[in-house]
Amino acid sequence: MNKKDKILIIGAGLCGSLLALRLAQRGYKVEVYESRPDLRKVDISAGRSINLALSDRGLKALRLCGMEEKTRKICIPMYGRLIHDKEGNTFSSNYSGRENEYINSISRGDLNAILLDEAEKHENVNIHFNKKCKKVEIEKNIAHFKDYETKEEFPVIADVIFGADGAGSSLRKSYISERKFLFSYSQNYLNHGYKELEIPANKQGNHQISKDHLHIWPRGDFMLIALPNMDGSFTVTLFLSYDEGKYNFENLTSEEKITEFFEKEFPDALSLIPNIKEEFINNPTGALGTVKCSPWYYQNKTLLIGDAAHAIVPFYGQGMNASFEDVFVLDEILCHFEPFDKLKTGSSREIFDWKTVFKAYQKARKKDTDAIADLAIDNFHEMKDHVANPLFKEKRKIEMDLEKHFPMQYFSKYSLVTFKENMGYKKAMDRGRAQDKALLNLISGDDISTSLDMTKEELEIVLKKVIKETNEILKEDKIAGL
Amino acid sequence: MNKKDKILIIGAGLCGSLLALRLAQRGYKVEVYESRPDLRKVDISAGRSINLALSDRGLKALRLCGMEEKTRKICIPMYGRLIHDKEGNTFSSNYSGRENEYINSISRGDLNAILLDEAEKHENVNIHFNKKCKKVEIEKNIAHFKDYETKEEFPVIADVIFGADGAGSSLRKSYISERKFLFSYSQNYLNHGYKELEIPANKQGNHQISKDHLHIWPRGDFMLIALPNMDGSFTVTLFLSYDEGKYNFENLTSEEKITEFFEKEFPDALSLIPNIKEEFINNPTGALGTVKCSPWYYQNKTLLIGDAAHAIVPFYGQGMNASFEDVFVLDEILCHFEPFDKLKTGSSREIFDWKTVFKAYQKARKKDTDAIADLAIDNFHEMKDHVANPLFKEKRKIEMDLEKHFPMQYFSKYSLVTFKENMGYKKAMDRGRAQDKALLNLISGDDISTSLDMTKEELEIVLKKVIKETNEILKEDKIAGL
């Protein structure tokens, strides 16, 4: 570790640009190579607005880099889910019983742009666009790029290479193809794909449905969701099986069948999506995959970060947040080791090198990114199905009451994952799952009162039972794991 | 599906040869290509005897093919674990409280040989050795082979191709490289590798330690095990971390250090392994990986089976058994669909094709092979660590008593997995894990008596509590999963 080290970051997406910014702030020399054109100059999404949910873990990392305020300006707060049934009735389900806990709809492109702008303000950062990484020679620390404009191929040598090149990471592929070490790797696809559609703004440029919610049309085996954009439109996403069920992506091939499907399942949404047929036929069907791997690093040379290390499905709204939190955790590790490095004694120079940093980073981080990957799959089932289940609704009702009346004592699984940004995902998952299990079993066994309007005293009894049962579950799991 | 279909099986190992035998018995025309030489003619293990544990699921499949009797003749029954501590003290722990429940040590080579002999008795089977599959064009049903003797490459076209080509399956690699469909895939390595050593027979050609046991030297983070061979020797396997702990494969590089390690950790074993230094240095260190993937089939053309579809770590002694059970389950599916096929009406011809068989097979089988993969990892921790844990030992003691006195009512997780060959691995895992959790929590909470000599009446009370608690756990898990 040396501030003179030449650092190469592959990818200037959300993670790569935040990482570049943070390393530049720490004084490192950073070169960034991105395969796509500069999204601030070219509209690469071709008119499609892709939005994401930004929440407290992402904001924590943005705050570290001094980017919170600028980011907040392009955020649309979403305070809960608005659930639409087949008859067009809606009911809302807040994300938290505490005030000021909400998630934010944000444009991927706009956020990426302000991060690139900020990174480029630093003299020690250079960002190169239209340069596609073809492979990395991990033993030699050489990345090979192709320039999409000149068609030329050229190598870049660096002291350290970060692969922030997303779910299809070429650094990760090089780990697999070079076979220099035992690389554990998984790619798991859901049987569902997704397709984006649009609810445009009304004539006044305003949102046609509540912009304060994430909208869900849960239908058990599939669902539609919608997130608001700043221009008054909503980006709508259909999650549907490729080949199972009466309607699926393989058989929805005619305009008639598409209309029939939406008329039957999502009549209220259909009336808001004027170009449904064109969009359904022309927009691509995307796959939903989870990638896990280990180790993320090779010696003191390379590190995978963000989606390149852990791509997840979108259902917890945590993909970007987890990648930003990667940068936060890596920064903590650097804070820990850099002072030792400055001592520059013969032995410490060797001990506190990049390998030490990478190893400590993976040890601190891997269990948490594994957890959010699993939580995201859980939430797929929750969103498309459970949100409409009476027992689940009862649980959420109690949780909102507990959070409202005992804001310092009760945090639902959703709150632990989304708003407790200083608790790791793994701990949030373990505690959250045990708590859900406790609550669901207490409700179904009639062990707690679930009357509509409980007094604070009654709620306190519920709280104590839930905490006791949750701790019991955690204790029993621990004993069973010996 | 047609008895005139030309079936190609890649691989004549344990799974490939049993599959060839069974398909031949069902009347199919089968061509088998194997990369290695004929192990009945060439000693390919170069003096190393590799043995495996054969148990009831494997025997069930062998019975189906009329091979049980021949197999039993080359089996050495192992009735339990014999656990060795550092001082050379031993204690035994039976695999079951029921009589006649035991596992068998068997030579991989000998078993493979009798299966090849039996398969070749059928006119409709041809086995070709020294033919290595390089890749499969899955769209065209063409497998490409290289002849290791003539060095020539040649294609084989078939109506259906089975990949029984093991953990490094070339058919599976072709699924990945051809990218014709979304292929979920994982390879996960343990941080431990393994190395084989040998305890030779004594001068009289007899076993030097009990041949009725699987021997374990559990040391928490690593372990040594030994299985008996027919010639009086034992094959010993060291399972040790590559790079963690005081002693590991990376730092055990000198004869002095190897001896120091064994003197300190396995003094009784050391005295029985005369060629330890040569063997340790010359024998390869093997990796321990788990492979899962999905789908196993491509259209009506190809199917992965055995280790090619689901390679697992060896700690439950179920790798071969699971592969043999694959053949049993596939046979059941064929039994179900073949009669329809014989009707040969226009529409049924299309419905009951190989794709229908493959899809039904994977639906029936995948959850079970996923389960045994996870159980095998559990058992790694059990064998190297838990077997020496007082709470765990108490649990096993009670389980042996329960199985002995209530042989029709109680089955430990080990028994469900190993001896209940008609219950799928998934069900065995779910029930077995819940039961372990119930027992461990009842013992640690002093909710059941664990006195040394319980009367049958006292044991019956224990049994009832365990069953009640197990069912409660399963019910609560179900509610929590909504």
From TrEMBL, chains A, B:
GO terms for molecular function: monooxygenase activity. Pathway: Cofactor biosynthesis; NAD(+) biosynthesis; quinolinate from L-kynurenine: step 1/3. Keywords: FAD, Flavoprotein, Monooxygenase, NADP, Oxidoreductase, Pyridine nucleotide biosynthesis. The keyword NADP applies. It is an enzyme of class 1 (oxidoreductase). Residues 6-335 form the FAD-binding domain. It catalyses: L-kynurenine + NADPH + O2 + H(+) = 3-hydroxy-L-kynurenine + NADP(+) + H2O. Its EC number is 1.14.13.9. The keyword Mitochondrion does not apply. Gene3D superfamilies: FAD/NAD(P)-binding domain. Its cofactor is FAD. Belongs to the aromatic-ring hydroxylase family. KMO subfamily. Catalyzes the hydroxylation of L-kynurenine (L-Kyn) to form 3-hydroxy-L-kynurenine (L-3OHKyn). Required for synthesis of quinolinic acid. This is Kynurenine 3-monooxygenase. It comes from Polaribacter batillariae.
